[in-house]
Specification:
This protein is mainly alpha-helical. The protein is built from 6 helices and no strands.
Length: 157
């Protein structure tokens, strides 16, 4: 397996750890705080976790330069993507109706189980919500691929 693919898969694992295993509704809610300072702090903390996970997931390659550059890159790019996503959310969804969703409720909604508090929100906004989530995750994964390819082009492996 080439190093760029190894780097990409390691960063993808870090992204999974940061966004899925370490996800909390509280953290997600803090990132959407109306006070800009609080919002920036919450997004920064979230992105710092992602940078840390990239550091950990690339450690086995033994390249400190790669670990440091990836951590800095991940922090900056993830911050920009998340901040932009939240700004877009504010334009797509009525703030009075917006909800930070539980994974279980989303799963139940997607398989047709109803009777959760999110039903009204999803009934009204599902297409927007799905498109935004697909775009968000595509941007994150594309940024990881870009780093891996860029690393290979700059450092020759």
């Amino acid at each position: 397996m080439t190093t760029s693919i190894t780097i990409f898969l390691s960063l993808l694992a870090a992204h999974f750890l940061g966004d899925w295993l370490c996800y909390s509704r509280e953290s997600s809610g803090r990132k959407r705080n109306r006070a800009l300072g609080s919002r920036l702090k919450a997004i920064g903390w979230h992105c710092l976790k992602h940078a840390g996970w990239s550091f950990v997931c690339l450690a086995w390659l033994g390249d400190w330069r790669l670990m440091l550059y990836s951590g800095l890159y991940i922090f900056i790019i993830h911050f920009c993507i998340d901040f932009t996503r939240i700004q877009i959310e504010e334009g797509l969804f009525d703030p009075a109706e917006f909800r930070v969703l539980k994974r279980r409720e989303v799963f139940d909604y997607l398989i047709g189980r109803r009777g959760h508090p999110i039903d009204a929100f999803m009934g009204k906004y599902f297409r927007r919500w799905a498109l935004l989530n697909i775009a968000d995750q595509t941007a994150h994964v594309a940024s990881l691929a870009l780093f891996a390819v860029g690393h290979a082009l700059v450092w020759g492996y």
